Amino acid sequence: MTQAQTPERLDLTENLNISRVLTGLWQVADIEKNGDTIDPGTGADWLAAYAAQGFDTFDMADHYGSAEIITGRLLSRGDKPRPVAFTKWCPAPGPMTLDVVRAGVKERLTRLGVDRVDLLQFHWWSFLHPAWLDALHALNTLRDEGLIAEIGVTNFDAAHLRIALSDGIPIRTNQVSFSLVDRRAAADLSDLCRETGVKLLAYGTLCGGFLSERWLDQAEPDAIADWSKMKYKRFIDVTGGWDAFQGILRAADGIARKHGVSLANVATRWVLEHDSVAGTIVGARLGERIHAEDNLRLFSFALDTEDQARLDCAFAATQPVPGDCGDEYRRPPFLTASGDLSDHLDAMPLPHDATETAHRTGGRQVLSGSKWEGIAGYARAQQIGERILVSGTTATAGADRIVAPKDAGAQTTFIIDKILSALAAFGADAEDVVRTRIYITDDADVEAISRAHGRVFGTIKPANTLVVVAGLIGGYRVEIEAEAVLRGTPAV
To answer: What is the 3-state secondary structure (H, E, C) of 319-384?
Structure first.
């Protein structure tokens, strides 16, 4: 084996060359959790040690303690080649005007001490609030102004990434969990990446350290104090438990011995070899050993057909992580360190509230603010007893802008989000839906629309009618109406 001397690099764009092993700075927040802030100069020295080994691409976020400030101090030194700084903006759902988005980006610029962010990655907690798309359009405006070099997203599933792309947002990356345990990103998301050229930045590749020799043939831990391990233990549990996980460890260990590398190398290499992956993010515990020698071994070998077959055999004894990428933050089973996020999500604002109707005692309605509600005299949704009726809904953003005008599947996803948002105002959700009616203009769109509908209603299976019509007002490709009955009550 000939050891590589520097990490592999990738031209993410014409002007953005990155290390394929990114240095993740989320542990800065953990180091500083008791109120002791890392001295920026000392922290910059620690980052410089990574950059000197070729690991000069740093990933951080607005909530990673002082990570942006430390990285900014490093950037201010003018080292050549210049280190690359990716950060994230993770606002709470609410109106996303250009001024709101500009303020969020300018805070990143100030903390980093730069005029332009190399890659601004956007996270959104709940797609029931449609302002996420407004935020991305505002970010694109700031990109045009030169405040952002490139736009990325984080924890987007394939369906919502497709909406953004089909609506004209030039997204370069999507940062998601991807590992030997969590293989969701290898499915629909990777297919979309191949189709569109978006690249994945993979985190959680070592499952908080569980994917290492340390845990091979060890007893299942009774208690875990480390937040990262608490999170990834949930992934292990939901995919088949400790015994199934040990099967993956044994397969990876056998491959590691064959190539003379570490088990962690094998776990990371498996992710890196996916053509949709630009790089993996390895967490840094600043001030401690940087593990450069071990990480450099990643680029000294490749997995062969026998290795892949060995891992596939181990995977067959496990269950897939439910849902798509990012679902662990948005729906059960919540696979986060803190577990159930229902209260967190329920506390987030919805775009509209249900109000009492003047003409019907006990009736409630949701008004979206559309001018047509006043002109035509209708509501987005109406509740009568336990029954909720949702008007025909199109993929409209703002007053009258058609979302993803050429992509019926993307329009369907956006529409269903709007329907679920209206239902949420009454305390209902997708499982309360008993009927949907879909109107489309081109039977060539049937499969894309059906798949988008099935992504949400595949296990619920409401009654459904799909009709091809001559046309829809405004040039939309699809319109959907829905009926729901609050659970626990009979449909009448």
So the answer is: CCCCCCCCHHHCCCCCCCCCCCCHHHHHCCCCCCCEEECCCCCCCEEECCCCHHHHHHCCCCEEEE
